[in-house]
Every structure is written in C-alpha cells, then in structure tokens.
C-alpha cells in the first residue's frame, strides 16, 4: 500500500533497490513516486519515475528485460523500497548490457581500527 511508504521525505520520490529474488544480487537502483508504485502493483512489473524525463517508465519496455515483482519491503523509516524480482528476457538489467548496474569498481581507503588487549 502506498500509504505505508513515505514519499514526502524526498519531495515525492523514494529510492527503490532492485534485488534478484533467486540469489540476492543487487541489480539496480531507481526512483519511484506514488504513481510508479501504483503502476508497478497493477501490472506486476517494476515501473520507475524518470527524474530527467519527468515521466514513468517500465524497466524493459524496449529491451524486453522486464522485472517481475515478487515482493516488496520498506526500510525502518519507510522511505526506501527493496524490490525482489525475477528478471525476464535475456537477464540483462543495466543499459550497458550487464546483469547488474553495479559493475564499476572504485578504490576504497579503509581506516584501520585500533584493537586493544583488555586482559
């Protein structure tokens, strides 16, 4: 139900994380407004709100790689969605031709925590 999602924290939008229901892989992140969420529920396919085009778009409508919604949950603040899906078509989710959009590795500098022996 859309009343369970707080769309107002981000001026009518909420981030929607898409996860493969079979293996837990994070596939992509998009944004939804209330209309996109309602359209997703009515069709069973994930629909996002395009911030650049100011319109709804259903993932895979041109490529055929649609995201069939299996379940959805919110975080504790109710302002982010986690969508568990089955990928239909060739299994490609990213517009660059990969399964996941999260393929660009970046260097991470990690701080080393000091460990104290408390004997």
Please describe the structure with a list of short key phrases separated by commas or semicolons.
Ubiquitin-like (UB roll), single chain, 6 strands, two-stranded antiparallel ribbon, 119 residues, globular, mainly beta, four-stranded mixed sheet
Mean pLDDT: 93
Proportion of strand residues: 25-35%
Structural class: mainly beta
Order of strands across the main sheet: 2-1-6-5
> What is the highest CATH level, the class?
Alpha Beta
Largest sheet: 4 strands, mixed
CATH architecture: Roll
Q: How many beta-strand elements? A: 6
Going by CATH, the homologous superfamily would be Phosphoribosyl-AMP cyclohydrolase
**Cα-to-Cα separation, first versus last residue:** 53 Å
Proportion of helical residues? under 10%
Count of alpha and pi helical runs: 1
Structure description:
- The protein is mostly beta strands and 119 residues long.
- It has a single domain (2-87), classed as Ubiquitin-like (UB roll), CATH 3.10.20.810.
- 8% of the residues lie in helices and 31% in strands.
- Strands 2-1-6-5 form a four-stranded mixed β-sheet, with helices on one face.
Question: What is the fold's blueprint, element by element?
Answer:
Blueprint: E1 14-20, E2 26-32, H1 34-43, E3 47-50, E4 55-58, E5 67-74, E6 81-87
Parallel strand pairs: 1-6
Antiparallel strand pairs: 1-2, 3-4, 5-6
């Amino acid at each position: 139900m859309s009343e369970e999602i707080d769309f107002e924290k981000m001026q009518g939008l909420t981030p929607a994380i898409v996860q493969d229901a079979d293996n837990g892989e994070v596939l992509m992140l998009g944004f939804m407004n209330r209309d996109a969420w309602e359209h997703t529920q009515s069709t069973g396919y994930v629909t996002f709100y395009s911030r650049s085009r100011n319109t709804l778009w259903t993932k895979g409508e041109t490529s055929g790689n649609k995201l069939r919604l299996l379940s959805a949950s919110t975080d504790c603040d109710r302002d982010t969605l986690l969508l568990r899906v089955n990928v239909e078509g060739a299994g490609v989710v990213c517009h660059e031709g990969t399964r996941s959009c999260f393929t660009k590795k970046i260097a991470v500098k990690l701080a080393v925590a000091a460990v104290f022996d408390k004997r």
